[in-house]
Amino acid sequence: MSRRLKKACGLLAIALCGALFACAGNTEFQDVLMLEPTAAEQSTPLGGAALAQRRQDMQRAHRDMLHFHATLESLQQRKDRNGLVLFSQFLDAYMGLHLDPLLASEWQSRHPELMALDANLRLVKAEVLIQMRSPQRVQQVIEELRERYAGREDMLVEFPIGKQGTLRDGLRRLGERKWRG
Amino acid sequence: MKHWIASTLLLATLISGRASAEGEPEADAWAGYLDFAYVYSSAEPEALAFRLREYGRETHMSLQDYVTRRLEAGAVEGEDADEVVARRLAIAHLLQYLASGEPNELEASVTAVRKLEGRLGRHENRYWYYYILAHRALEKGHRFDFVGDVLSLWLGVGVPLESPYETLETLSLTESPNSGFAAALPYIYENVARLILIRSQQMGLDRDVDPLGAIVRLLADGRVGGYPDVIPLAASSKEYLTRIIERLNGPESDAGSLTFTLALFEATKLHDQARSLLASEGLAPKTIEAMRLASGAYQTALDRADTVQGECAVYRRVLRQLGEVYAAKQRLGVDPELEIPFTIEGAIEVYAKLALAGDDGWADLGYRNTGRESWVEAMRGLWEEIQETILNASAFYLARSQESPATGDEDARHAARLYERYLSFFERFATSERRGGVPDSAYFAAHEAAKGAGDAYLVYATRPTPDEIELATRRYRSALTIFPFDRRLWPALTGALERQGREPEYMELVRPVADWVTRSRSVDSWIAKAEPGAESIAALRRALSDSLVIMYLGFAEDEGIEQLEESVRELRAERAIVSDQLAELEHERGAEPGQRTGVEVAGPAAPADAPPAAPDSLAYADLSRRIQETSAQLEKLDKQIAARSRALPLFRATLETGDLGSELRAQRTHPIHALLRRMYHEKRS
Questions:
Q1: Out of B166, B211, B307, whose CB is closest to A90?
Q2: Measured between alpha carbons, how far is A90 from A105 in angstroms, rounded to an integer?
Q3: What element of type H or E holds A156?
């Protein structure tokens, strides 16, 4: 890896740390919002405006993940190794800081308004992880999906990307493809 | 960028709101201008410099003075003075750099913003920190740093502010003085878009920006242009971004590479400029320079292409430029020195890669996301550019062969070689099973190339060899086989045969072509369904079913139709005379007038006092011989009149069919191209 690339990765790492400490030491409005309990800490279902906001956040994250997947696929197809390294760093940080907290709550996997979105988001995350050649993390997503959606495997999900199918088929497909990338 | 001026009013509102909220004196208006610099920092250098001068005039203090007297002199007080001063100083130097292009200002900005490294928890600090570092990476040409900085900016500022901004928007609080940096989100989108799409290109960053394709896709997904009440659509880069994203995700991409898309887009812009100069100033030195720049930019795009999809996209556009150059040279009659580092052979190689990949391999060429249709469309598009370039280049050489006797023969043969190249390309791919990527217009182009090759030897070359004449004759026949409805080709073939003393072979050569047209199921179905041009094709098919018309097509001049019709009148007059002579002879011999078949008009009655000749006399025998001869002459005349009376209207009908060839040449999407394709493959099957 070139020096510049290492430096760029370092900058991303700084961004990660910066974002982790984002809530500290400022009084702006948006940071007050960030001091609210994170998704992971929420144990009770949201309702009203907060539920609408959560749905909006999840929908946006889903669209963003599809764009990330398209970019990752493009980098893979062109064998752009430097680009893959940089972008994978970014994706790791994005998932760690933003996506995983958004997916942490148990209740949203059971909430009738959010469960399909929640499942779709997990599936696209797994697909991105396949592209990132991270089979262990794909397996974690598969196991989590099996656990959270036990008995509901016939629900319709948007998977494979761009198509529709049952969650059961999606999980089978992920299991088969997790070693690829 | 001019439209950024439109945001002045909003800026004034924001600044006055913030100033009153913070209780700052009016004299420190620069503080407000710097705190809200994200509103206008992406303006073009001239616009930005003008704006900074205007602010200086309003505050009675230039930005440089403000930096020296207030920021560097430590005149700012308060709890977070160090942080505020560092940020404003960094912004001030950045603005001066962006307005003047002076690298020292950027270094000063970086030095100042580094002091914020311990305070990056604040989004505003983080935004300026990465924004300034990204500019420095661009200035230094450090492409990986640039990508890393922009991704960090997105992750550390864009992503965390989106949800809060939506909340503010829901509550109509985005313009509230206390809304904080979240209110800046639409500007952040805009600035990031301009940084990636415009600034990076201005600074010559032409590789390794592909991870930023993700950010461009996110920006295009309702972010840039998504807040028209904050940034009017006309002032946003939405339109530009939309065009980029269409290229990025469309068939003219390189498997989704942003680097390639920006490079090709830049080349296309330069090509458009060159085209515009060509239209206004012809092949002037300025135009030549613009063309050179454009072809250089295409070369860069080709260098950045990792997939065959990318190579195909570049060749399609650069061949168009090549074709335009040849067409202009021919039209304007000038031939300036212009090196375009692309060849038709290169394009044919790319086509071969596309075509040979077949149904199993097309996705690996870069079309996985755009689909099979885009692969087929790309092949057809590239083919059309190859054929047009070859036809334009050949036409240029043919025209030039007439201008210079010294090099005329060489130019004519060069044109012939180009036509032959197209024919071998056509033969290789149009006759194979994998001909899905061959456009319908390729068949008529093959006709044009075959006819052009024949013309090159027989019309343009001054001393064609016997082998060349033979080759030209064959090419004319091939051209006739592909497109038999070209009336001008039939006499061209007889001309070629005449040069070899082979005119008698004409019928033998063309008869199979004519017979095939009259039997063709494709032609029959086209006429029956009254498809476009069916009337003309029907007239030509009727004509080709008559040998005499075929002879007329080969040997008669178009303008000679009046003479031919006059000849029928003359024949009729001659027949009347011969008929009278015959009647007179028969009367003399003692037969009743009108007794012979074929005699239409009885001759005048023989004199009553003329004695009939004795049947066994010599005079009777001579009379019988003369009657026989005259009868034979009359019979011949009858046949000629009948044949010409039948054939001439058919021949005339062919002259009235209009020039189908010109129509097909001008319209590559003309429906008859599809008929030619069907006819060609019907014949081969």
A1: B211
A2: 23
A3: strand A156-157
| Higher per-residue pLDDT: A160 or B169 | A160
Residue B68 identity (one-letter amino acid): T
What does the alpha-carbon distance between residue B126 and residue A124 come to, in Å, rounded to a whole number? Answer: 29
In angstroms, the CA B192 to CA B203 distance is: 15
* pLDDT tens-digit map of A132-150: 999 999 999 999 999 999 9
**Residues A113 and A150 sit within 8 Å (Cβ to Cβ):** no
**A69-108 residues touching B, CB cutoff 8 A:** 70-75, 77-80, 82-83, 86-87, 89-90, 93-94, 97-98
CB contact under 8 A, A11 and B149: yes
Please list, in sequence order, all residues whose beta carbon lies within 8 angstroms of the beta carbon of residue B639, skipping any fewer than 6 positions away: none
pLDDT of residue A32: 37
ipTM here: 0.83
| A23 occurs within a structural domain | no
Query: CA nearest B249 in A: which residue?
Result: A70
| CA distance, residue A117 to nearest chain B CA (Å) | 17
Nearest-CB residue to B145 (from A8, A57, A71): A8
The pLDDT of residue B570 is: 85
Closest by CA to B576, choosing from B547, B604, B617, is B604
Residue whose pair of structure tokens reads 């070629």 in the numeric block: B496
**Structure tokens, A175:** 């299991």
Q: Where are the domains positioned within chain B?
A: 2-201, 560-605+612-655
Report the Cα–Cα distance between both ends of chain B, in Å, rounded.
Answer: 61
Count of the separate structural domains present in chain A: 1
Q: Kindly give, in sequence order, each residue whose CB lies less than 8 Å from that of residue B582, ignoring residues fewer than 6 positions away.
A: B596, B599, B603, B627, B630, B631, B634
- Residues B22, B44: Cα–Cα separation, whole Å: 31
Instruction: State the average pLDDT for chain B.
Output: 88
A27 found inside a domain: no
Q: Which residues constitute the domain of residue A146?
A: 50-177
pLDDT of residue A16: 47
CA B464 to chain centre: 35
> What phi, psi does B458 have (nearest 5°)?
-90, -30
Put simply, whether A48 touches B (Cβ < 8 Å) is no
**Helices B159-170, A48-77: crossing angle, 10 deg rounding:** 150
**B218 → closest Cβ in A22, A24, A67:** A67
Could you list the mean pLDDT of each consecutive 10-residue stretch along chain B, which spans 685 residues? 46 50 58 95 96 94 92 75 93 97 97 95 96 98 97 97 88 68 95 97 94 98 95 94 95 95 96 96 94 95 96 96 91 86 94 92 91 94 96 93 85 96 95 88 96 93 89 93 86 86 86 90 94 87 84 74 77 89 84 47 47 72 88 87 76 72 90 94 86
DSSP A99-152: IHHHH--SGGGT-TTTHHHHHHHHHHHHHHHHHTT-HHHHHHHHHHHHHHTTT-
- CA diameter of chain A: 51
Mean pLDDT, rounded, for A30-36? 41
